[in-house]
């Protein structure tokens, strides 16, 4: 009888140990699952002089004009861009420095009040910018922008980190020259959008649907 009781106790102990072990394994799997779900929003390759940023399509600007190409979702202008950036613009600024880009820092708030014929273009190192998503190889950023005027995009590392810190707009990439955006387009001087010289939209015939995640690639031009 004592042997039967001892065997039963040992079996129960083994079951408890087994359940505990299973529980530990489940937690490990769950933990790994959570880690995998936390995608990197920005990666930097210093050797390639390349930055990849995760963004989301904002379908509002398929039909409404905007001067914002990419804005960090946590900024005050987070919902005003063709692409909603998932990485902080201030960290993006540092990433550009890390790949060897030099900022222009030539624009001021006063320059943003320019009229239609006295605007100023952003300076800074030239960047080649591309976009890709599932089922679509990388294409030039210009291809996702619809504009009322024909033009050739000339994206520059404007810098503007002090303005970015002060205003916290989240502006990563502006579609005309800007004194706050980290990157903006020298092809269009300050005053372009407020004077209705050109209007910019996300191209619904090129971009995937609203909310789709895309990757934007920034490369230091050779």
UniProtKB/TrEMBL annotation:
Keywords, comma-separated and alphabetical: Signal
Domain of life: Bacteria
Signal peptide interval: 1-20
Designated name of the protein: 4Fe-4S ferredoxin-type domain-containing protein
Species of origin: Enterocloster bolteae
């Amino acid at each position: 009888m004592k042997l039967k009781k001892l065997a039963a106790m040992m079996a129960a102990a083994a079951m408890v140990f087994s359940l505990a072990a299973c529980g530990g394994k489940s937690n490990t799997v769950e933990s790994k699952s959570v880690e995998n779900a936390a995608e990197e929003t920005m990666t930097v390759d210093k050797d390639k002089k390349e930055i990849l940023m995760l963004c989301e399509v904002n379908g509002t600007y398929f039909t409404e004009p905007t001067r914002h190409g990419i804005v960090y979702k946590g900024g005050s202008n987070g919902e005003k861009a063709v692409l909603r950036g998932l990485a902080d613009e201030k960290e993006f600024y540092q990433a550009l420095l890390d790949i060897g880009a030099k900022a222009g820092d030539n624009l001021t708030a006063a320059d943003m009040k320019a009229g239609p014929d006295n605007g100023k273009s952003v300076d800074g190192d030239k960047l080649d910018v591309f976009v890709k998503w599932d089922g679509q190889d990388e294409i030039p950023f210009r291809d996702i922008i619809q504009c009322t005027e024909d033009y050739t995009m000339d994206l520059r590392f404007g810098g503007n980190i002090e303005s970015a810190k002060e205003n916290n707009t989240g502006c990563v990439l502006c579609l005309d020259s800007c004194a706050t955006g980290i990157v903006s387009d020298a092809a269009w001087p300050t005053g372009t959008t407020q004077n209705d010289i050109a209007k910019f939209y996300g191209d619904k015939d090129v971009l995937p649907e609203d909310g789709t995640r895309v990757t934007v690639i920034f490369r230091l031009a050779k």
